[in-house]
Amino acid sequence: MENNLAVLKYGGSSISTFDKIRKVAAYLQKRVSKKEKLVVVVSAMGDTTDHLLENVARVTDHPNQEDLAMLLTTGEQQSIAYLSMALKQLGVQAKSLTGYQAGIQTVGHHLKSKIASIADQRFLDLLTTNEIIIVAGFQGFNEYGELTTLGRGGSDTTAAAIASILECPCEIYTDVDGIYSTDPRLYPKAQQLSQISAGEMMEMASLGAGVLESRSVEVAFNNDIPLYIGKTLSNEKGTWIVPDDEMLERKAVTGVAVDDDVIQVVLSYPTTDFKLLNDLFNLLDESEINIDMISQIDDENYLQFSFTAKHNDKIQINALTGVLKETYQDLEIVLNENFVKLSVIGAGMRDMHGVASKVFRTLIENDISFSQVTTSEISITFLIDHENNQKATEILCETFNL
């Protein structure tokens, strides 16, 4: 593809007012004056999506998912129209496209769809006569021609997917100035990273770092597309997320991610009847609930099984455990919301020994207890009490010079 082509994405906070939209348009005009061709993906303005959902509550308590998707896509449709108008006011040749018009085909749940395909020829044709194509993020259409949305972080995913089919870099602009070693609100001395590997970023995103959704990083990672994240209209340098083999130096630990959007579910049953677990997983599948940090204790007479999930799945989890109790009357269920997931992440863990023992010793020496642990090639994740969140983050950052 052309080497002067890039995909840019602007989140809702970046275009939350008409003044901000005009300023973004002026910045984009400068880019195209340097002979760049741009595809710009935008979210809905500010709190538009929240306001649309508030309006739904005035109409019904049980909205149809297809209707909800139809409604929610109107937020981004407003954004692309306003930005296109602002660009044309500045003399820039621009074309706005909904997800449907852009050919973003999806599969799955109406409100949690995944991108199946995007036809690149549509973009290539339009770029011959336009300097900027503006695409509504967060949306697409399914095999029946129905409008769908991509769920949380959907606009980031849209941008990364378009960059992948056009084989060009993707720049994501938001209200933060890059990726930090940890959340600066928990550890003010956190270092901004000029570069991070896609593998590490994907791990950080999936383990709670809220700057980017893991799906967008995964799309870029799978297609060797460089991702950039920076602050909208800022002169400060942001962070490049690059393919793993482009990292010149690998630290043992790159960052500490914290996820407080977590509940722990503990099921206890006075027999080792594994039919219970089979029924549990069937219900979780039917409810499309993702779980992690699974652990199990059993002996001849007793089974204890625990897992973690997201807070917004609490209502569905209560419902499905209620269904289980109808069959397994002695089943005891405890939901604990007083935990956070704390993860230590670094690609250097693959090659450097002693990282795990150093993390364990640091927590133990500082009287920070943990109830569950999971690991991957480049991460170690602990479930700890919420009250120890900041203390543990600070201590681990100091230990590994983050």
- The quaternary structure here is single chain
| Widest beta sheet: strand line-up | 3-6-2-1-9-13-14-12
Distance between the termini: 38 Å
Tally of separate helices = 11
Note the overall shape: globular
Fraction in helix: 25-40%
Strand content: 25-35%
Report the sheet with the most strands, covering strand number, pairing sense and barrel closure. 8 strands, mixed
Q: What is the typical, i.e. mean, pLDDT?
A: 88
Radius of gyration from CA coordinates: 23 Å
| Count of distinct strands | 22
Residue windows where pLDDT falls under 50 for at least 5 positions? none
Structure write-up:
The structure is a single chain. The protein has 402 residues and is an alpha/beta fold. The chain has helices spanning 18-33, 48-59, 65-89, 120-127, 154-166, 198-206, 214-222, 275-286, 314-327, 355-365, 389-399; strands spanning 5-10, 37-42, 94-97, 104-107, 114-118, 132-136, 139-141, 147-149, 170-174, 179-180, 192-193, 195-197, 227-231, 239-242, 255-259, 263-269, 292-298, 303-309, 332-336, 339-345, 370-376, 379-385. Strands 3-6-2-1-9-13-14-12 form an eight-stranded mixed beta sheet, with helices on both faces. Strand 13 and strand 14 form a beta hairpin. It is globular and about 75 Å long.
